[in-house]
Each structure stands twice: as C-alpha cells, then as structure tokens.
Design goal:
By secondary structure, the chain is of the alpha+beta class. Helices cover 38% and strands 19% of the residues. The longest helix is centred in the first third of the chain and has 21 residues, at 27-47.
C-alpha cells in the first residue's frame, strides 16, 4: 500500500483574460447581436478549455509545471506572494476546479477550508450543516452523532447552533467550519488563509488540534 497522500505531476493551469466586446449602437446591430448571442455563447463555452488558438497576451499561466509529493502524516506549507497561484493550487487539489494539464493522485478522504463558509449551505442551521458535511465526507449519521457535541464545543457557537449559517459572522463560520473539518476526521485537510479571520486564541487552538 502506498504511503503517498498526494502526488502532483507537471501541473499547469491557464486562465483566459476576458476581452471587452464591441457593442453595436444601432437598432439593427443590437437586433443582430441578440439573434447571434446563443451561438457566440456556445462557442465561448466550447473554447473554455482550449488554449491552442489563443494569443499569449490573452492567457495567464497561473501554475507552471508544478510537481510534488506529500506522504501520509506529513504537513506541507505553501508560501508565495499575492497572485503566485497558491489558492489556485489548493482549489485544484480540492477538486473545485480542473487543471489545464498535468496529473493529480489523491489517496484519502479530503476536507477543505479555503474561504469563509466553504461547504456550508447558508439557509441551513449550524447543526444541519454539520450533518451535511459529514454526509459529503461519506460518514454515517451514527459517526456524526458521536462527534457532534465535540464539534459544537470546540467551535464555541453553541448558542447559535440552530440558527441559519447565513446569520453567522465570518468568525463564527470559520470556527464551525474548522471544528467540522477537524472532528469529522478527514485523511487529508487542505487549508487556505481562512483561519486568519479567527482571533489569536482560536488560531492557537486550531494549530493545536492540527
């Protein structure tokens, strides 16, 4: 059995820079644009993953030939300036977006904390979202039941656990999201800068838990 949790080979991610389209200022031109817009939209959709015909100045290479391995039990930190591609890489590892080229192999159950409220349904209560996240991670209700009280206690939002998440502050969302991710025991935990929203005490507790 492999001891690798994550393996990335020659990963590349390109993004197309949107160009401003010309707008017709005549009635006939506007009518023509309206009639042809479905065809243009279809062509745009089809071309989203095709970059061979694009000019170099119309494309940004967010990730270039990224390769690395993470073994089970290891912790890997990614450091770089704004726009370096850190969040793009984590979104690809979390299966939120697809790479342009390259291969990713992930062995294990993944949970991600990338942005405030990631994975939460705003209309559901805190407690309902705990069970929703457990289901997404492939857990049975009994498993979530056994962890529920620990999650709520760690998050510190007991008073609001039956309140819809859309009414939570950003700090409350992060507290609950981390508690869910930590106590539902994923095999791989991917975290972006989201913990920066929490206060110093909570950050210290999160680091201790990790």
């Amino acid at each position: 059995m492999t001891d690798l949790a994550i393996k990335v080979d020659y990963l590349n991610k390109k993004y197309r820079i949107g160009a401003k389209e010309a707008i017709n200022d005549t009635l006939g031109g506007r009518l023509s644009d309206f009639i042809l817009s479905p065809l243009r939209n279809f062509r745009k959709l089809k071309s989203l993953s095709e970059f061979s015909q694009e000019k170099e100045e119309d494309v940004i290479l967010a990730l270039r030939d990224i390769s690395f391995e993470v073994k089970k039990g290891e912790v890997l930190g990614i450091i770089g300036h704004n726009g370096a591609g850190k969040s793009t890489l984590l979104k690809i590892l979390s299966r939120i977006t697809q790479p342009t080229t390259g291969e990713i192999i992930i062995n294990g159950r993944v949970s991600s904390l990338l942005e405030v409220g990631t994975g939460f349904h705003p209309e559901l209560t805190g407690s309902e979202n705990i069970y929703l996240n457990g289901t997404i991670l492939g857990m049975k209700k009994k498993e979530v039941d056994s962890k529920f009280n620990e999650i709520v206690e760690f998050s510190g939002v007991e008073k609001f656990i039956d309140t819809p998440v859309k009414r939570y502050s950003s700090g409350m969302k992060v507290r609950l999201a981390f508690a869910v991710s930590a106590y539902l025991e994923p095999e791989i935990l991917i975290i972006d800068e989201v913990l920066a929203v929490g206060d110093a005490e909570f950050q210290k507790r999160c680091l201790g838990k990790m």
